[in-house]
Write a structure and sequence with these properties.
By secondary structure, this protein is α+β, with helices and mostly antiparallel strands. About 35% of the residues lie in helices and about 20% in strands. The chain is elongated and about 80 Å long.
């Protein structure tokens, strides 16, 4: 009996060591993933920009980014992405979307063309996994005072027009999430963005959050 108990204790000890190694690896991966988020917003004259990501698990598929263009200082972009699922798989696909978007966006062509090309890349990666990624990508044209954007399966952004004071959801025609169908053509939308306007983007981690009574914030 003592030998049996000893064997079980040894098994438990090894299991604890494995779990500790796994937890250490996840914590390290979490720190790496957080470093993929922008450390600070870009300094764009006339704009105030802020963003934050807080994961409920060690890792996740939510991602946001700022994109500036050396060849066109009068243009900058903001991306919001939410990969389906949770955990390591979502985090890996999130890093892949980030890489494709950062590599493709500076080449120009407008949001519609950019997201179409990123989707073609993601479709080949996600084809057998059943995963997908929703995305809201917006570029601001500082000369014309407009926002050009694409909504790929993502919840609409919320805009307050600085000229009229009215709120509107940027829905547009929308489009499929990234990674679902290769060759899908995304349509660019254009919205006036006069001085004093505000644009808020987020993922369902915000509006599906529960209040103390168990109700979603919406």
């Amino acid at each position: 009996e003592m030998g049996f108990v000893g064997d079980k204790i040894n098994e438990m000890t090894e299991g604890l060591r494995d779990r500790e190694r796994m937890r250490t690896s996840l914590n390290l991966a979490q720190r790496v993933q957080q470093r993929l988020m922008p450390a600070e917003p870009p300094d764009v004259k006339g704009y105030e920009i802020a963003g934050k990501s807080v994961y409920c698990d060690e890792m996740g598929g939510d991602y946001f980014d700022y994109l500036t263009f050396a060849k066109d200082p009068n243009r900058f972009g903001v991306a919001q992405v939410d990969v389906s699922g949770h955990g390591v798989e979502s985090a890996l696909y999130m890093a892949t979307v980030r890489a494709y978007l950062r590599q493709r966006a500076p080449k120009g062509g407008g949001p519609g063309r950019i997201i179409t090309d990123v989707n073609d890349q993601m479709a080949s990666d996600m084809a057998q996994s059943g995963s997908f990624a929703t995305c809201f990508y917006c570029e601001f044209d500082l000369r014309q005072g407009v926002a050009r954007w694409v909504r790929a399966g993502h919840d609409p952004a919320l805009m307050c027009n600085g000229g009229t004071g009215e709120f509107q959801e940027l829905k547009g025609v929308g489009g499929l999430p990234l990674g679902v169908l290769e060759g899908f053509a995304y349509q660019e939308e254009v919205t006036d963005f006069p001085p004093g306007s505000m644009l808020a983007m987020g993922t369902d981690g915000i509006w599906e959050r529960l209040d103390p009574e168990g109700r979603e914030y919406g």
